[in-house]
Amino acid sequence: MQVVSEPVQQFGSRSHQAESIPLGRYGAYGSDISEIEQDDQDKGLGFSNDFIRRGFIRKVYLILLSQLMVTLAVIAAFTLDKQIRVSVANNTPLFFVALIVMMVTLVILACSKDLRRRTPMNFIFLAVFTLSNAFLLGVAACRYAPKEVLLAVAITAAVCLGLTLFALQTRYDFTTMGGILMSLLIILLLFGIVTIFVGGNVVTTIYASLSALLFSVYLVYDTQLMMGGKHRYSISPEEYIFAALNIYMDVVNIFLDILNITGGSDG
């Protein structure tokens, strides 16, 4: 898990189980479409059904949009209101409470398939996770000037929109790259640990740039897993909470990296 003050500190984590198929960083959800959808297709409920697929994608993006709007509102409040910034700076225990809540809810959502599919508990846990994560992002944004945060938000929005369109249009299948991406993530985390001891603006910028690049590829990977269709691997239509969580964390990490690259502490 990550904290906000150091380059290695990205929110969220990625983990893979030892299987022969690409896995998501919060559990095993990648699988051959012919295997994971066999039962659903017998009932007319799999991704081969265009109605089911469109409904799934609509759910994911509505949830994701709600998460991003809440996060953006919290960041704006923390960045623009000086009184809130001072209050947050003087309330370290609240930061650690939010960090613990974020980590606990993330682990629960990642590990409990039954909870992720049980309404309304899945939405309650996702809402708690989003609010706590938004608070931590707001704290991180307080270290930067408002114009720098706004620039990072604009760049992140443009990058994510471009990557999403690319993921939908490209003929290349990124869903088979799960193992490679996980290996690169481990290397990146080790490099991030080194930057804590080495320090320096140049090293930090290099780390943030590599991290932004990796999570950009992860965004394409997660988008194609969600889309299913022509891609070899796909996520189950019932895992709309899981899909939204993955894409949200990709966007958050890209934002933090871009903020680290473009922003300077306003002290």
Please tell me the overall pLDDT: 80
What's the overall geometry? Answer: globular
Q: Tell me the number of helical segments per DSSP (H or I, 4 or more residues long).
A: 11
The CA-CA distance between the termini, in Å, is: 26 Å
Oligomeric state of the chains in view: single chain
The main sheet comes to: 2 strands, antiparallel
Structural class of the helix and strand makeup? mainly alpha
Low-confidence segments, ≥5 residues, pLDDT <50? 1-13, 15-24, 26-45
Write up what this structure looks like.
- The protein has 267 residues and is mostly helical.
- It has a domain of 158 residues.
- Helix content is 70%, strand content 1%.
- It contains eleven helices and two strands.
- It has a two-stranded antiparallel sheet with strand order 1-2.
- Helix 7 runs parallel beside helix 11.
- The longest helix has 31 residues.
Task: Give a brief outline of the structure.
The chain is mainly alpha-helical and 267 residues long.
